[in-house]
Amino acid sequence: MIDFMQDDHESDEVTGVPPNATLRLERKHPLAIRWMHWINFPVLFIMILSGIRIYWNTTDNAHLYPHAVYRIGIGSFTLMRLSPASVWKALDIPWHVTQGLGDHFFFMWIFAINGIAYVLFLALMMALHAKDYYLAPAYPVFFAAGGIAWAAWTNAKAWRNALMGVYAVLLIAGIVAFFPFSVPVLPPQQWLAYAEKLHFKPHDTENHDATPLPQFFADRFGWHELVSQVTQIYNSLPPEERAVTGIYAGNYGQASAINILGKQYGLPTAISGHQNYWIWGPRGYTGQEMIIINEATPEEMSKYYASCSVVGKREHPYAMPWEHGPIYLCRGRKMTYEADWIELKHYY
Questions:
Q1: Helix or strand or coil: residue 141?
Q2: 99 in any annotated domain
Q3: Range of the domain at 194
Q4: To pair with 225 at 20 to 30 A between CA atoms, which of 82, 98, 203, 236?
Q5: What is the pLDDT of residues 176-233, one digit of tens each?
Q6: Is 25 a domain residue?
Q7: Does residue 46 contact residue 103 with C-beta atoms inside 8 Å?
């Protein structure tokens, strides 16, 4: 964790880290997760090594044609080998199929803990109605296992093998039909018409008011318009005010838009209490004069600042609901950001 204690709000142009930042390390993951990582890595290495020992002996007459399975070629012509024999000998791969089988089938049960953890975690996620993509890293493993099982089943009979071709056609057709729902290849109006025609709209993973576009598309809109408004507000201030004015964003998306898109317009680095932006601290801003992007009402803002006025409005039709709201110009924060920073921490 980085805790910023600097007296100014300028950052290094290369690293983006304030010059007087101090570094504090904290454990990020619970012990159970760290144990899973520490166990999985050596077990996975052993599974790969033992698998290679088994695979090395799978060719016909392996003693006559060693490691031919690692060859790429056409007929008898060898284009290349994935590794020369010296590599296999250095790794002690040849002629250890029995040891490979023993290691593989012993350590696979340890590795199977991941599968058990997946099932338990899946049940927990479903019970809590959590975000489905948290389990996405596990899917490629199950796809590979399912592919092997599917191939074994279809190769047993000719009609099943033909069924594989039909399934492939349906799979390709589905990918083509639903491609616009995963990759933004259509403009918003065309996307809406296409979704209406197919009577399909993806479900969002977060709870929020209804939006024309699903979140993974809607999150792409409104950033340039936000930066344009903030730039106009910032440049309208007298030079002596601009020198002390900062930008506070309600979430990391708004802060990142200012810091990335606003750099070309000379905007100061935005701060936020949201997610990792809280770790990066107030960057020396006290709250003397701030452009603030959030969803708060003027009454709520008056609790923290001597004066606040609405100087802009965010209302892009395709943006997410929380990207609709006021832009404030506030002066005289009643408690400095440094003193109040822990209260601004917003993690979820």
A1: helix
A2: yes
A3: 149-204
A4: 203
A5: 999 998 888 999 999 999 999 988 877 766 666 778 888 888 899 999 999 999 999 9
A6: no
A7: yes
